[in-house]
Amino acid sequence: MKPDAALRAALYARVSTRDKGQEVDNQLIELRRFCVAQGWLIVREYRECESGGTAARAELQAMLRAATQRLRLSERVRAGLERVRRLGKRLGRPRAVFDREQARQLRTQGWSWSRIAQALGVSKAAVRRACQSPGRPSEVCQ
Questions:
Q1: For the chain, which end, N or C, has fewer CB atoms within 10 Å of the first or last residue's CB respectively?
Q2: Buried b / exposed e across 78-100, counting CB within 10 Å, b at 16+?
Q3: C-alpha to C-alpha distance for 68 and 75, rounded to whole angstroms
Q4: Do 66 and 43 belong together in one domain?
Q5: What's the total number of domains in the chain?
Q6: Predicted confidence band at 2 (pLDDT cuts at 50, 70, 90)?
Q7: Residue 76 forms part of a structural domain
Q8: pTM of this structure
């Protein structure tokens, strides 16, 4: 998995009391190991020494608030994109406008991808895509 595509993880560790030798560090060591093994990116660690009997755990509440905000933002973005699509707006990078047939002809004449791209004023990737798109003669794309 690419680093920018890694799942993001928040770790939460809690012990009931410190005076009995309990430490959140032991839990966090194992949680970190697990995240590394899964290829997850740890974005934050939440630590608490609170009784499990109370819901007033500040770090747990902070983690849940952050997760809820992230979910709401994601939902709003998705809804906005869907609304714009319904209106017929094309999203994404504008298509490169150039004579694709000319690009294929220059390639058959032995021009390099870079030289064709420079001559047509577009990216090398756009030229390659045009020449290698389905239904095109394969000899053009060599």
A1: C
A2: eeeeeeeeeeeeeeeeeebebeb
A3: 11
A4: yes
A5: 2
A6: low
A7: yes
A8: 0.56
Instruction: Judge whether 42 lies within some domain.
Output: yes
Specify whether 9 is located in the same domain as 50: yes
Give the Cβ contact number of residue 52 at 10 Å.
10
Mean pLDDT of 76-80: 96
Phi, psi of 56 (to 5 degrees): -85, 55
Which tokens go with 43?
């974005």
Kindly report the number of other CB atoms within 10 A of residue 120's CB atom.
Answer: 19
At position 14, the amino acid (one-letter code) is R
Q: Which two tokens stand for residue 16?
A: 């009931």
Same-domain pairing of 77 and 109: no
The mean-pLDDT minimum among 18-27, 70-79, 87-96 falls in 18-27
- Angle, to 10 degrees, between the axis of helix 113-120 and the axis of helix 124-132? 110
Q: Which domain holds residue 115?
A: 100-141
- Give yes or no for a contact between 17 and 53, defined as CB atoms under 8 angstroms apart: no
Can you tell me which residue has the tokens 């755990």? 57
Residue 35 half-sphere exposure toward CB, CA atoms < 13 A: 19
> 113 with 50, same domain?
no
77, 85 Cβ separation under 8 angstroms: no
